[in-house]
Amino acid sequence: MARIAPFAAYMAFIAIADLLDRLGWSAQQMLWLYPLKIAAVVALLVFYRRQYVELFTARPSLRDVAVASVVGAIVFVLWINLNAGWMQIGASAGYNPAGTDGRIDWVLVACRVAGAALVVPVMEELFWRSFLQRWLAKAQFLDCRPAEVGVKALAITSVLFGFEHNLWFAGIVAGLAYGLLYMRAGNLWSPIVAHAVTNGMLAGWVLATGSWTYW
């Protein structure tokens, strides 16, 4: 539950946004849902913090951090290029922090960047890699070392991770990269760092180019 609840809360807010959209709410009216979503996830991560033993018992080396950073940068480059029509599910509404007057709300930008680069990597890696990838390999997942995860568990987790995203093909590639990094490095911080680098670079690129659909 400690690894599922924050992810479930995040997905629940996505469902709420979809419902509000169907009820006629505009994207502008729903901009503040994201800060609320991140606040809910942070609250759950703090509540369950004592149960995330892998974050305290296996620290990454400087080499691990360097490798993870490179992997994260590569995933970012692939993410913005793996965007052919067949690589997408539907069309992403994105997150445009500009008001009706065209001026960007920088408080919303700060919330979005912090959420994407700091909170989401921890929440998603705890769910996808620490829990699901290991649970698919061994029911008592806490007793499963990252190196013991097999190809089947890696593949299933990566595919599911991919279809969580509008850019499903890029998502599968990212899932494979983070999953392999977790298995090779033997610590959860490596995929967290890689994920954070990817999301941080994506945030910078979105702000620089105005490609809001990637948010």
UniProtKB/TrEMBL annotation:
<keyword id="KW-0472">Membrane</keyword>
<dbReference type="GO" id="GO:0080120">
    <property type="term" value="P:CAAX-box protein maturation"/>
</dbReference>
<feature type="transmembrane region" description="Helical">
    <location>
        <begin position="7"/>
        <end position="25"/>
    </location>
</feature>
<feature type="domain" description="CAAX prenyl protease 2/Lysostaphin resistance protein A-like">
    <location>
        <begin position="111"/>
        <end position="201"/>
    </location>
</feature>
<dbReference type="InterPro" id="IPR003675">
    <property type="entry name" value="Rce1/LyrA-like_dom"/>
</dbReference>
<keyword id="KW-0378">Hydrolase</keyword>
<dbReference type="GO" id="GO:0004175">
    <property type="term" value="F:endopeptidase activity"/>
</dbReference>
<feature type="transmembrane region" description="Helical">
    <location>
        <begin position="31"/>
        <end position="49"/>
    </location>
</feature>
<feature type="transmembrane region" description="Helical">
    <location>
        <begin position="167"/>
        <end position="185"/>
    </location>
</feature>
<keyword id="KW-0812">Transmembrane</keyword>
<dbReference type="InterPro" id="IPR014346">
    <property type="entry name" value="Prenyl_protease-related"/>
</dbReference>
<keyword id="KW-1133">Transmembrane helix</keyword>
<feature type="transmembrane region" description="Helical">
    <location>
        <begin position="192"/>
        <end position="214"/>
    </location>
</feature>
<keyword id="KW-0645">Protease</keyword>
<feature type="transmembrane region" description="Helical">
    <location>
        <begin position="61"/>
        <end position="80"/>
    </location>
</feature>
<dbReference type="Pfam" id="PF02517">
    <property type="entry name" value="Rce1-like"/>
</dbReference>
<dbReference type="GO" id="GO:0006508">
    <property type="term" value="P:proteolysis"/>
</dbReference>
<protein>
    <submittedName>
        <fullName>CAAX prenyl protease-related protein</fullName>
    </submittedName>
</protein>
